[in-house]
Every structure is written in C-alpha cells, then in structure tokens.
Write a structure and sequence with these properties.
- By secondary structure, the protein is an all-alpha fold.
- The chain has one domain.
- Helices cover 81% and strands 0% of the residues.
C-alpha cells in the first residue's frame, strides 16, 4: 500500500498541472482568439503564432509530463521559466496599464493573476526540488535517471 505522502504528492502534481493542460487545450481549440489576445497584449505580429505554438507545447506537453510524473523535474523547470515572461508581459504589464487607465477592477484582476502565477511558480520550484514522488513514471526508472541511479545504489 502506498503511503499518504505518495498519494498526496500524486494529487498535488495533477492539480498543479491541470491549469496548464486545460489552458493548452483551450489554446488549441481557439488559436485565432488566443493569437488576437496575444497581439492585443503587445506581442509583435510576426511572433504571435510562434509564441502561441510554444505556449501550447509548454502548457500541454509539460503539463501532461507533470501529471504522468515523467521528466517531472525538467518539466517543472521549463514551465517555471516559461511563466516568467508570461507573467510579466500579460499580468504585470496589464496591471500597470489598468492602474494608469484608472480601471480598478481590471487592475485587481491582473494583480490576482500575477500573484496566482507567483504561487504556481513556487509550487513548480518545490516539485523541481523534491521530485514527483513514488507514484510516477520517473520513480519507475523511465524518466529521472538520477532517481534510477539512486535506487540502484
């Protein structure tokens, strides 16, 4: 029987990844709408679709890796690094634009969004440091080579 720590780690990993998987899937289902939002946020037209495809790959790809517990530490670091410019470009900048335009509700929403991203980034760093737990593909020796070598030793 697995310990409570193992089960909590699995559920936490899935919950942390869920926001990225759903967001990536949403982007796939609405490419043009997402591209328009990105352009409106100030992304140059020539970069919108490459950035959109990269976002889908990171959100959907790395999110699914986190859920499965495959290459978990790397996936967590990739999402963490990807969230830095996303948070700055969309939510911090959006907050300051809303403040300048005296849009209190928009400013509050953007503040909540960037604080949410900071909290998620903290969770990703913890996951990168501690690993996925034993209920993961990594713990079976397929993903995290360091974990596999520790088990062999």
């Amino acid at each position: 029987m697995k310990s409570l720590d193992d089960i909590v780690s699995l559920v936490g990993r899935i919950l942390l990844a869920l926001i990225f998987v759903l967001s990536g899937f949403s982007k796939v289902m609405n490419l043009s709408g997402t591209a328009g939002y990105m352009e409106q946020a100030g992304i140059p037209s020539s970069l919108v679709y490459p950035a959109l495809y990269l976002s889908i790959a990171v959100e959907l790809g790395c999110g699914l890796l986190l859920m499965a517990g495959l290459q978990t530490r790397w996936a967590a670091v990739v999402i963490f690094l990807w969230l830095i410019p996303v948070t700055l470009l969309f939510h911090v900048a959006g907050y300051y634009r809303a403040v300048q335009q005296h849009q209190a509700v928009v400013a509050l929403t953007q503040q909540i969004m960037y604080l949410k991203n900071l909290a998620i980034m903290g969770g990703l760093l913890i996951l990168a440091a501690t690993g996925p737990g034993s209920l993961s593909i990594d713990s079976r020796g397929f993903g995290d080579r360091a974990a596999a070598s520790r088990r062999a030793a």
